Records
---
Amino acid sequence: MKERSPEAVAEALEPAPRLVVPDSRRLEAVVDDLRIGRKVTDAAFDAIYPQQIRDLSARHWTPVAVAMRAASLLAQDADTRVLDVGSGAGKFCLVAALTTPGRFVGVERRGHLVDLARSIGERYGADGAEYLHADIAEVDWGTFDAFYFYNPFVENLFGGRERIDSTVALDPSRYERDMALTRERLMEARIGTRVVTYHGPRAGLPWGYELCDFEPCGSDVLELWVKVK
Ligand SMILES: C[S@@+](CC[C@H](N)C(=O)[O-])C[C@H]1O[C@@H](n2cnc3c(N)ncnc32)[C@H](O)[C@@H]1O
């Protein structure tokens, strides 16, 4: 296949969509239910997002119950700093911050999703969550105690309709680069670092990590890995 020039790739990218945050008392009640530990369905929770983002939820954002359990495995106390590697519209960080003590930071390369996550966080007073508009390579992983992965790089291997959108360049070489960088950063992490994965990656973690918990959750399993060596 003929390679496309960087200019041609740039031309194929779409502009970021305009996202309007829905506003209603009913949504505040849903978020309050979550805060006080009542069961909230994904359909009810996802209504805080604009329709385009809601439509992506089943495939791309962590379900509420999975986010709550993953957050409780990651954050041991209020001082734990957790990085959500590829935070999308902020669903994991938001649910985590509303239900678990701990500081949740999302890093996301799509600026419009970061803007949306920040607006929603402010709207609902989720003070324990914040978002960085950056590539994972630009973040200092050493300032975090724990990491969450909902298979963030696999979209690089997907075809058109399965993607979140076409506002950023996606290709298999980025998948390889991001996986390699992740392995490197996790190898450098300090002993005691906690990692939770949902939907893989199946290759396991680098040497020195021990699988401490493996439980069916949502449509897959949650794996908790702890760095012991
Ligand atoms: C499957 S979504 C998960 C979203 C979020 N963690 C959740 O569960 O609600 C993965 C996100 O990772 C982001 N991502 C992928 N590669 C990235 C990179 N190299 N740097 C920053 N963000 C990245 C994508 O843009 C996408 O929004």
---
Amino acid sequence: MPMYEYRCQECGKLYEQLRRMSDADTNLQCPGCGSQKVQRQVSACAIAGSSSGGPSGGGCAPRGGFS
Ligand SMILES: [Zn+2]
């Protein structure tokens, strides 16, 4: 099960969650404020290990073969 990164559009909180691919965009809810305005971030590097609360934004180009 892949880990996805989400960002709340209400409070700006960035968090990660393990989800099935088929459920990646369903029933999203911010753990901080409870808002459902959450946007999934494209992050293929979460599996490789990212520092907690790491830098917001990219710096982590997805590599071919990740699916
Ligand atoms: Zn929030």
